[in-house]
Give the backbone structure.
Amino acid sequence: MIPAIQSSSTLPKRALLNIFLVLFTFVWFLPTLGLFISSFRHPSQIASSGWWTAFMHPASFTFENYKFVLFSSGIGKAFINSLIITVPSTCLVVIIASLAAYIFAFYEFPARKILFITFISLQVIPLQITLIPVLKMYRSAGIAGTFPGIWIAHCAYGLPFAIYLLRNFFSGIPYSMIESAQIDGASISQIFSKLIFPLSIPAIASLGIFQFIWVWNDLLLALVYLGGTPQVAPLTVKLASLSGSLESGWNIMTTAAFISMLLPLIIFFAMQKYFIEGILAGSVKG
Amino acid sequence: MNIKFKNKSEVIRKIREIGLYYLWLFPAAVLLFSFLILPAIQTIGLSFQKKIQIEEGTIRNELLASFSEHYDEKITINKNLSDLENWENAALPVAQKYGITIDTTVFDELSQIKDIVEMIYASLQGKDREKGGLKIFSLENYKNLFTDREMLKAFRNNTIWLLFFTLGTVTFGLLLATMVDNIRWSSIVKAVVFIPMAISFVASGIIWKFMYEIDIDTGAINAFLDMIFNRILKMHYEPIAFLGRADTVNAALIAAGIWMWVGFCMVIFMAALKGIPSEIREACSLEGVDGIKVFWHIEIPMIMPTIIVVTTTMVINVLKVFDIVYVMTGGGPYGAESEVIANRMYRTAFNFNNFEYASAMAVILLIAVIPVMLINIRSFAAEQKNK
């Protein structure tokens, strides 16, 4: 409707806006593009000429960096570790948070409100305040530097946001549906597993994607609770140590960084809608 | 009778029901308590402790001082305890100070003051092995925070981050959201601006380290500036080591940080702008109201709640900024030019093993988010009321 009433004077304005946004988008994309292009160049070329000159000799692109990084530098192992860390952490959060969010959304019981507010306000607590005692606890329990240790930690830290997101979604489900199920004699767990869970697949997808990307990209918790042990180090830890060591060349760093971005990018592009919905659910309604 | 029975079973049923609800909450409650609430309290406690190393001589001097004061005369180390009446009263306060409880039954075995010294020292050694050092209550960690050169740099840098990062992300995010709203290919802009949110800060850090390289054959920014100044304007330009200079490093890191987070702000603002009824904008354009005026006087006030939420989210993020600094500079150059609290805390705790001092830093971070937390709790509570 708006274009119909636009006067001719807004036309140059629109053109200007479009030109600006094209430029802006291009500039915003350049850093990632540079990394991507560099990861396919020969080490000698990366050092002697900028990646922006790469298309002048396109024949020289190579998979050598990927071959080396995946099979000889330990990044392949780190990729597997990242998966081993991320998948169970994500599942744990989804399960435990949905149990709690379901109860908070539909049932009345003493201290409900205060418990809910306490649970979700924990979202803003800086994790730094918890690292030392949790690490001490892990050391005495013997799970510092192990996968189960980091699964539980990620799950616990992810809960406040997860409960908040899921409860907001569950609240949108009409209570009458629960009531009629109750009249039919369904138990709490039946209502949850046969009614609420299937209805909430979009919200659970949002949460799952969000949590997956968050855990995949985490550096701090992996550094602290896995303690730099190479056997269990995920991609982020491996990348950070590569970046800190002087001998690793840009060919290795760019390739390793791009490998670490691959999975989040695929998930992001394939399920952008759910990812963005997760972000919106987590902040706008607050 | 019958009614009473019915009531009783009703009560039991209700209690069982509520028990069941708590059972469903139990896993989440246990995890939140043992990973967030309890550790936070423990960290606060730890921040008031200080590890001390005690020499035998110190204990001897303190005991002698205590004895001399107690008997009002100069007492030497070889004094026989049998000559002193009620000597426990002079010895016990010293032992208590080190947190040592002396079993009074062993008193008969002690004959001289130096035996007490040995006993206290020996039990201290035992304590040492058990708990990894003797700890006493102390405010010194907090005092050190405000005198330590690196920490002061970290406070300064966190403040710079707080101002410029928050301003940058919120302003850019808002402007982009308004501009993108008006074009047809907005999904492309949205995706590109959002990519950095999907990848790790570590990967982003590497991307920007690469961009900032000083070598004009590697670093895109220096190459670009070199082309503009040296080749086109024919001026003299020396490539800048953005991450290696005290005067550029923070700006360079913050710029990278903004690149990473603008997408987040933009997406939320776009959703908020979509919530403004289209009739309002149509009415404005029918009346011929200037687009900029609409933005300032209608859109901004209408999405103010969202602006506040995004700003508080950014403030919380920026207080905890860690990965970017850890990967790109490690807090350097020159020791601490780009240091931030979270990175300092990490290094103090896990590289230098000073858990007590690091705890004090973490407490500072917690205190800094408390105002934001209160705002959030208030809005949660308000939201609850509306439901």
